[in-house]
Every structure is written in structure tokens, then in C-alpha cells.
Design goal:
Helix content: 55-70%
Disulfide bonds: 105-131, 119-146
Biased composition (Basic and acidic residues): 54-66
Strand order of the largest sheet: 1-2-3
Region (Disordered): 1-68
Subcellular location: Endoplasmic reticulum membrane
Mean pLDDT: 77
Low-confidence stretches: 1-89, 279-289, 303-309, 746-767
Number of helices: 37
Radius of gyration: 38 Å
InterPro entries: FN_type2_dom, FN_type2_sf, Kringle-like, Sel1-like, Sel1_AlgK, TPR-like_helical_dom_sf
Largest sheet: 3 strands, antiparallel
Oligomer: single chain
Amino acid sequence: MSLVDEEGNQDESLESKTLSAEDQVKDHSTGTRVVAGQIFLESGKSDSQSENEENFHSQEEEKENSLEELNSLEMSNLLNKDLEEPSKLRSFLTAIGGTADGEPCHFPFLFMEKEYAECTADGREDGRLWCATTYDYKKDQKWGFCESEEQSNKRRQMQEAEDVYQIGMKIFNESSKKAQKKVAYQYLLKAADMNHTKAMEKVSYALLFGDYLKQNIQSSKELFEKLTEEGSPKGQMALGFLYASGLGVNSSQAKALVYYTFGALGGNLILCIHLVLLSQWCNFCVAKTCLKIYLICFPVASDISLTGGTVVQRIRLADEVENPGMASGMLEEDLIQYYQFLAEKGDVQAQVGLGQLHLHGGRGVEQNHQRAFEYFNQAANAGNSHAMAFLGKMYSEGSDVVPQSNETALQYFKKAADMGNPVGQSGLGMAYLYGRGVPVNYELALKYFQKAAEQGWVDGQLQLGSMYYNGIGVKKDYKQALKYFNLASQGGHILAFYNLAQMHATGTGVMRSCHTAVELFKNVCERGRWSERLMTAYNSYKDGDSNSAVVQYLLLAEQGYEVAQSNAAFILDQKEASIVGENETYPRALLHWNRAASQGYTVARIKLGDYHFYGFGTDVDYETAFIHYRLASEQQHSAQAMFNLGYMHEKGLGIKQDIHLAKRFYDMAAEASPDAQVPVFLALCKLGVIYSLQYIREINIREVFSHIDMDQLLGPEWDLYLMTIIALLLGTIIAYRQRQHQAIPRPAGLRPAVPQQEPPPEHQAPQ
């Protein structure tokens, strides 16, 4: 399914995620439970947590927090309530027309020796729903319609739309070819024309991004407005995005916030994240904010397997353009084919590498468990311990390709662990921790996790931290837990970020810091499935579709992705997006450069200085430009920023002119980057000339010469010496000129003509 479809289904898939009982180990003393290395808070509290709460909150605030938690959970249950209401109202249906007009329907009722618990269309050719008002229809012949004729026609129309929608989705999901997906969207278009809500959501996003349909911002806006009127959270989110970015409408942050709020209240997970992070950045960070974002990040973290979840590829367009030689992290097609060739020839390392690449996805390669299993199987048969361990992982977690089997997983983990493989040791530790195929044994689990952690394997570090946190098999030790969570987070394990965020949010083992917790939670939330659109936006840009790319980057930028903010600003800066007016290009680029710079991106900070220096999208302001360059220089040690500071000191722009400070910054730039040495050398040469001219201008030359005594310096006959030197120089020049006139060079390429000799008479051709 495409990313548009995943956006359409992400809320349901994440909120409906359930956790098996075998994945849970409860510690009643701490009031927490561990699920695949995650620490989930329950009603009970640890001692340190209770002490912190007594210090920070009164009983009234705790009640308010509980209410906030209930309200947040209610958002995810709105859909379930909507499904329950019809069953409650069913018994109050009143018959329309028929032989019992106005009488209440009786459920269940008997018709054709079959009981019906709801209205039915059986027995009618027109498909109109009816019910009996007594139990036995055959005996009493009391009946009436459950709907008016208008309602019946509308219901049949919606059923027809649903059938068309399902056909389109079936074609879309069963094929990976672009042509077939375009055919599928023709069915979705037809269903959308029939007011099918899900079809309208998918078509509107396809029109917005240009996915399988021609990009049309105005048409997508009309569909979003229609969806918003019907109360669709996805429509409200998209309309808020249009007002925030000014696409197809006049930009209005106030309207955007209103639509975002309604969408979040409707249960849109992305908007919940956006609004909570917005409250954090607006300095409204309190315990309620931490609680909200914890509840939001829970389904994201639950969706992450022990392999760490899908890889999020972050490629900055500005870095690619300014540093063409720098690797972007993408694998070229010919390089992948080369590794495939090596794997087919039996290269075990190539097989393991390709197996991991297809297992996790990323670097331009789609996730493919079938291919991963085949490569791992080949390498495992050759005796590779790493491949055995990853086969154990695949069997332990299960998928559509590999059936879940604890026994098979245990066999592979044991083989890999016996060979000293940390992945196998960690997998064996999981088996003993949760009793998968073996009796639960915390001591053995701790032993294998320690072995894996000593070799730097992030899963081993994560699980070891969880055992210390919950006191499973060891004495509870929050400092040790923090240590191992930090180590796992340095390896990029997202569940480690999640656990660290909870510890900072509750003040467990560390000083309570809501700001730190929210930053860590943000890292978790950005690993949701919606982050995969970063790659689709990049591919659109590489295919030359800048309009589609900029819209996708702008949407992700609204969700706080720094890479998306900088990439959107870069495309606008290059004026490659025709959907944005020329007068609006630089102001919007300035906005997103500012957002990216606030998240620590050096190039964005320098760009802010450039925009204020040259007056792009704002008035020329040398002082503000100087501030941005100084921040980039001090915080990120940017050679470009140092060079710019040197230039501004040299010219006296935004700061008092100071040639000495200019030279200092030029020297610092040369030390910071070898690439800056040549421009710095030229700048210093220029600076030397300026300094010399300035020095000469400041002194009186006549006064200097008046103090010079030539007789004292060169002797009383210095004029004779000078005349002799001049005569010698003149003679040398004359002699050199005479030698030039005597040597007349022959023009190159000319040779004396050689007369052709006639051939001997005996060799002459006959006349």
C-alpha cells in the first residue's frame, strides 16, 4: 500500500495494536511492565516517582492529570463509541409504512423460519430494509420499512460506492506496478464522486501530492473542505496544512491551528503529536504535556519490533548539492546489483548485508522479508553466525513470510550464541526472559544480555537496562538502567529513547526534565510510519517533480521534521517549485530555514545570515546577519560563518571595522576547514594590500624622506654607486636586445621543398 494509504490507515493500525501476554512481564512492586524492552507505566508508582510527584504536584493537580489521561484515551475510543451507538438505537426503530406504520420494530423477529436481530432486505427485490413489529411475521403479518425511500436510495448508493472502493483497493494492493496503481485510482475517483469518505481521503491526498494522479492543489482543497464538513480528522488536518503553508489559500496560522485542533480532537495521531510539540516549543511544558505525549508515543513505540522498526532515511538536499562527493546514504542500483552478483557467487558477507538491508529497508531499498529470509538462509547454511541469529529473530517475531516459531528461533539463537555472536546471545536472553520455548530463567537471561551488551549489541544493552529498571533477576538500580539505556540510544535504538524519555518525564533515576523528555519523545514519534514519506519526497525531487516534493516536505515540516524543513526551504530557495508564487518564495524559505536552524542545522543558520545580509525575503539587516553568523561560528564551528564574520569585520558591516579581527576570523576559517584555505589566502592577500594602503595613507611620505640621510646610509659617494648600477643595468638590456635581433628564428612547420624525382624509365607506366 502506498504512503497515502498508510496515512489513511495509520491511526486504526496503531491504535488497534495489541500485545500478546507472553511479551509481558509484570513487576507489581514497581507498577510497571516491560513489553519488548519498553517500560510502560501502570497505576502503581515507584518510591522515587511518588516523592517527585509530592514535590511537584498537589492532589488536585494529580486528579487533573488523571482527567487529562482519560480525555486523551477517549479520543482513541470515539470510533468504538460510534459503532456501539447504532446497536443501542436499533431497538428504538419505528416502522415506516407497511402494515404497522409508527409501531416499534421487534428484535429479534421470525421470518421464513429464521430469526433476524436487525432490519433485513430479504424477501424484497428492491433491497429496501424492513422489520417486523411482532416476533412471528408469518402469523401476524405486521411489518414496516426501517428507512424512507430516500434513505434507502442513499444507502444503496453508498453500498455501490463501497463496492467500487474495495475493487480499487484490491487492485492497488495486489500490484506493485505504477500503471496498475493508476487504474486503481480511477476506481477510487469514481467512489469519491459517489461521496465515499475513505475514497475521498485517498484521492484528495493523491491530488495534493501528485501520487498516481496529476497534482491539483485546488481540487484537493475542495475535497478537503467537503471532508471537513463531514467531520473527517484527515480532512481537517490537510486543510490546516493548506492554511499553514499557504497552498491554494491565503496563509493563516490562526485558521491552521483551529483545523489542527479539531483534527486532533477527532483522533488524528499526527496532529496530536504536532500540537503537543507546539505546546512544548511555546514554553507551556508542564506535567500534562509529558503525559499527553507519552500517551501519543505509546502506539508508535508498541509498533516497533526488536529489530528497531523501519529505517528512516534522512537526506538533506543542500548537503548533496554543496558537497557532491559526500555520500547521501543511498545505494546506487549498480552497486546493489554488484552485491547481488557477489551473493549469488556465494559471498557470505554480501548475503548477510543484503539480508539486513531487505529486513530493515532503507538506503533506497524497500523492506522485503522474503528476500531477507533467502539471503540469511544461504549465509546460515555456509555457517555464518550473524545470519543464524537474524533467522532466529525472524522466526521469533514472525511475519507473512516466516511463521512464528519459538522452537525454531531457539535453535538458531543457540547456534549463533555458541559461536559468540551477540545477536544470538541477546535472542537467547529474550527466550529465557519471557519463557519462549524454554522455562523462564532470569539468571540466564541476565547472563546472555551482559555478554551481548559487552560486545556493543544495542538489544542486549536495552534489555539489560530494562532488567535493572524493573529489578528482574537483579536488584533494582536506576543508575545502571540509565547507563544501558544511554548506550543503546547511542546505537540508535528507538525503544531506548522511549525509555529514557519516560525516566526524564517522571524523574526516575534522573532530575525531572520535561523539556528533555519531550525532545526524546519527539525522536520516537518521528519514527512513525508517516516518516516514510521523506523517501517518497526525495524520489519525487530526483525524478524532477519539484512541486510534488515541496508539498510533501512542507507537510512533514509542519510535523517538526528538521530534514523536511531544510529541504522545503532549499527547493524554495532554488525557485524550483512553480506552485509557489515568485514573491512568496523567499519569505517562505526564510520561515523554514529559521525552523531548521532552531533545531541545530548549521547550513540553515548560515542561510538565515545570508538572507538578512542580502535582503532575501526580508529587509537588509547586517546586525541580524552578524548574529546568525556568530551563532553558527560559536555553536557549530562553521568555517563558512567564520569567513563571513571576517568579511563583515573587514568591511565594517553590522559591526565596527576591525582589520585585526577580520584576519583572526579568516585564520580560524582556514583552521576549521581545509576547503577554506584558498579563499582565505586570497582574502588575506587583499587584506594585506588594504592594510598597506591604509598605513601609507596614515603617514606623511615627505616627512619620512626628510629624515633619511643618504650620506649616512650609503656613504658620501652614494650617487656614484647609483649611477654605476644604472649603467650596468642599461648595458645588460642593450646587449640582450641585440642578441634578440641577430637570432631570427625560422617559422615553425616550414621545411625546404624537395624536388620529386622521376621514376626510372623501366618503371614508368606505358603511355
